[in-house]
Design brief:
The termini are far apart. Helix 2 packs across helix 3 and helix 4 runs antiparallel to helix 5. About 5% of the residues are buried. By secondary structure, the chain is an all-alpha fold. Helices cover about 80% and strands about 0% of the residues. The chain contains five helices and no strands.
Length: about 140
């Protein structure tokens, strides 16, 4: 069992390059199907090219549409951030009303705000504004 250190290094290098290739391939395929501006025929054509001639297809996709991949990814991240913030604001809105009064007590609202703040769902500034609003009512 003679396996020199350089051969171990080269084997590890090829293995990690192989992993990187598959990550790139999956990212390109995911971008093809996530792109709303690309028509169905365009998606089918790019997918066929990437599947039949993987190296040529991926490199051609990166040359032709590589800049848009980053822009689409940033847009998706911004949309997810907006959706998360909207959810947090919705969750911080006045909650269930106490029976008979039709209004939640200030202590209930302050407790809910404190819980959101402790979980990190709202910032210190948002917590202070909401607390001041509850106490002002």
């Amino acid at each position: 069992m003679d396996y020199p250190l350089l051969d171990v290094f080269l084997t590890m290098l090829w293995f990690f390059l192989w992993i990187m290739w598959f990550m790139l391939l999956f990212r390109v395929v995911a971008d093809i199907f996530r792109d709303d501006a690309l028509s169905g025929w365009g998606k089918a054509g790019w997918t066929l090219l990437v599947c039949v001639l993987p190296f040529v297809g991926v490199l051609a996709y990166l040359v032709a549409r590589g800049r848009g991949m980053g822009e689409r990814e940033m847009r998706r991240a911004r949309d997810q951030e907006r959706a998360f913030r909207a959810y947090v604001q919705e969750a911080a809105a006045p909650g269930p009303k106490t029976p008979g009064t039709g209004v939640g007590t200030k202590a209930d609202e302050l407790g809910r705000l404190a819980a959101l703040h402790d979980r990190g769902a709202i910032t210190d500034a948002e917590y202070e504004r909401a607390k001041a609003k509850v106490l002002a009512v």
